[in-house]
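Duplicate of #3305? Posting structure anyway:
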């Protein structure tokens, strides 16, 4: 929730978690794997695509399956408690970043890519 809220408050139309759910966790995973295997230098390092691969294995494909990072019931979405626990278990540490730090870390990747 913090990632989505931070990026929306920055001015993005949706946050990265919502975007992954809307596109599909399977599609997001495929793109992430492709980019991490491409010869694009260090700018594509730092993520662990196995998080999404394991979500796919559990059938958590996002909005199209009714369950991804969020659970969808009609037009209402709520944080998927199972995925939230899974992500917390997956994380090696909590960096305790405030909203500005989250924004800076994510947006700086876009800025650096454009430079």
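Output from current build:
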């Amino acid at each position: 929730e913090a990632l989505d809220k931070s990026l929306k408050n920055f001015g993005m139309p949706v946050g990265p978690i919502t975007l992954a759910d809307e596109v599909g966790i399977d599609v997001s995973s495929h793109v992430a794997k492709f980019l991490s295997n491409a010869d694009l230098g260090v700018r594509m390092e730092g993520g662990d695509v196995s998080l999404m691969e394991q979500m796919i294995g559990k059938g958590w494909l996002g909005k199209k399956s009714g369950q991804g990072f969020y659970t969808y019931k009609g037009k209402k979405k709520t944080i998927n408690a199972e995925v939230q626990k899974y992500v917390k278990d997956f994380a090696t540490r909590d960096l305790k970043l405030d909203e500005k730090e989250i924004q800076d870390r994510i947006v700086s990747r876009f800025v650096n890519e454009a430079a």
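Confirmed duplicate; merging threads. The chain has a mean pLDDT of 89. Helices lie at 2-10, 16-23, 25-37, 50-57, 81-90, 99-114.
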